[in-house]
Amino acid sequence: MVKLRIENTDFEAPEGSTILDVAMGAGFKIPTLCHKNGMPHYSSCMVCMVKDNRTSNFIPSCSALVQEGMDIDIFGVEVISLRRKALEMLFAEHRAECEAPCRVVCPAGYNIPAMNRLIIEHDLKGAIELCKSEIKSSEILCTDCPGYCENACRRKKVDISVSIRNLKLFIALQIIKSVPDRIVADGRIEKTDHETSGKLNRADRPFTSRIGKLESFELQEWLKECGKEVTRNREISDINSASCESQSCMHCDCRAIDNCRLRELAQDHKIKEKAEKLINSPIVKKMNQNTGLIFENAKCIKCGLCVRLCEDSKEESGLCFINRGFGSIISEPITEDFNNILKSKSNEVIEICPTGALSKFK
Ligand code: SF4
Ligand code: SF4
Ligand code: SF4
Ligand code: FES
Q1: Residues lining ligand 3, judged by CB closer than 6 Å?
Q2: Which pLDDT score is estimated for 193?
Q3: 235: pLDDT confidence band, cut at 50, 70 and 90?
Q4: Ligand 4 lining (C-beta closer than 6 Å)
Q5: Does pLDDT of 314 surpass 80?
Q6: Is 289 exposed, middle or buried (CB count within 10 Å of its CB: 0-12, 13-18, 19+)?
Q7: Residue from 19, 44, 58, 74 to probe ligand 4 pocket by mutation (most atoms less than 8 Å from CB)
Q8: What's the gap in Å between 97 CA and the centre of ligand 1?
Q9: Given a cut of 50, is residue 197 above it in pLDDT?
Q10: What's the average model confidence in pLDDT over 185-190?
């Protein structure tokens, strides 16, 4: 057994244990991004750094093994400052938005891209449920709003903005039809079950990353998620015209918005993103037409978890690193097509990815 101190408390741990194992086992919370129990160490993100007061060295707790006499500091000022720097470095290259521009400017914070995805799939029930839940928690209705969302819509940079207001009003009309007791004289929805508890408060919004400057050829990458031949509809009369118009949405939001460990850590460590970004490679979106898997290089922190997950698979090709140094990126093997990889492991790689770099359309 090895004797050491962690946060001024004495511990004994079996030889070969990592500092992270022992600290977490004792109830201390150390953030990690590139570590997963049961997987080989990679130690690339450095957010799990701790300090050994005995030697004054900073060490990654996920891979450093316990040693006799260590005196580990997890929460000291220097350690937290180093963790913040590690996160800032990850965000220096991170060119993506957690929330779509339309949602950011919407005074009610309506999840417009999610609504669009449901309408594209003709999932009227889902779109109604989403909008009903949001109306409950907001005092603002689209009937009262001049349409800030359409003004901010990224699609405008390609041709014309998505008819967001008309799509929302189309869904609102379906709600009115399904909940007749909520109609008032002028046809507006009366918020009978108004709740303030879930109301989105702009100041409380979690960390939102910024994309930085976007080149016009990079804008084309967003169009990969749009319907191939979209007929634009400024008038929305039924689910077919609504679905068609929704297909012009470029899905600027991040699918990992509520499930991103990187975002959570940025929020916890009060990270402020810089507008200027380190650009090592342009934004690229890859879509696997067979499985629906999407890979966005600009959200990838190169933690290597997806690579390690695929490494032992003999049955199918997975993801790997290509290039060297700062130019290294996650990719399909150079002998493979992105459409032919991860036939069975798509969901697993999405699950293990600590960011929204791997996702599925819906
Ligand atoms: S990967 Fe995480 S931090 Fe980046 S845009 Fe998506 S939710 Fe935000
Ligand atoms: S393209 Fe879609 S997600 Fe992007 S700003 Fe417009 S409505 Fe929102
Ligand atoms: S795609 Fe996700 S899991 Fe794979 S290296 Fe990038 S961030 Fe890590
Ligand atoms: S979790 Fe330890 S270096 Fe990434």
Answers
A1: 300-306, 330, 352-355, 357-358
A2: 46
A3: confident
A4: 32-35, 43-48, 60, 62
A5: no
A6: exposed
A7: 44
A8: 6
A9: no
A10: 51
Q: How far apart are the first and last CA of the chain?
A: 50
**Could you tell me the pTM of the whole model?**
0.88
Structural fold of domain 281-360: Alpha-Beta Plaits (3.30.70)
Residue 137 has pLDDT above 70, yes or no: no
Distance 244 CA to ligand 2 centre (A): 14
Q: How far is CA 339 from each of CA 43, 287, 328, 353, rounded to the nearest angstrom?
A: 30, 7, 21, 19
Q: What is the pLDDT of residues 43-54, one digit of tens each?
A: 999 999 999 999
Domain 2-75: state its class.
alpha beta
The residue whose CA has the least distance to atom 4 of ligand 3 is 306
Q: Specify the pLDDT at position 234.
A: 81
Phi, psi at 361, each rounded to 5°: -50, -50
CA 314 to ligand 1 center in whole angstroms:
31
Interval between CA 26 and ligand 2 midpoint (Å) = 46
Annotated domain spans of the chain: 2-75, 101-246, 281-360
| 194 pLDDT higher than 70 | no
Per the CB < 8 A criterion, the answer to whether 16 and 65 are in contact is yes
The rounded distance, in Å, linking the Cα atoms of 119 and 324 is: 42
Amino acid in the structure at residue 72:
I
